Amino acid sequence: MATLGELVSLVLVSVLWGCTNPFLKRGTEGLENVTQPNRVSQILAEIKFLFMNFKYLVPFLINQAGSVFYYYTLSTTDLSLAVPVTNSLTLLCTLLTGKLLGEELGGTKAVVGMILTMTGISLCIISSVDDIDVATQNAS
């Protein structure tokens, strides 16, 4: 029983998460070249590399803003709708953004998987919207 605003919020979270994932991947290029003599120094050097790299830092902050917005949205949205919709759409946004950036989509199986995912999400949303319409009519 989600409102249109809640569904838009879930889609926004998915876009914030999914569209930043390929940029985060690109921002980590060169991380494998960071080497230090011990584990603690290595971890600190990697953290420094990532947070001094704007190609990583900007998508990371946008992604984290999506997380904050997600937790806010969870306070008002049914979990049985929020989690599958957000996670599924995040995957689709990641694949499509990656494709726009020149990454391989994954072939026919990936496209079929995206179509099935969109079909499942659509059914979840339609089911939720129908519940709202019935509840609104009963209240009248």
From TrEMBL:
It is a multi-pass membrane protein. GO terms for biological process: glomerular filtration; pronephric glomerulus development. Pfam families: TMEM234. Residues 1-18 form the signal peptide. Gene3D superfamilies: 1.10.3730.20. It is found in: Membrane. Keywords: Membrane, Signal, Transmembrane, Transmembrane helix. GO terms for cellular component: membrane. Its main location: membrane. Belongs to the TMEM234 family. PANTHER family: TRANSMEMBRANE PROTEIN 234. This is Transmembrane protein 234. It comes from Oryzias javanicus. The lineage of its organism: Eukaryota, Metazoa, Chordata, Craniata, Vertebrata.
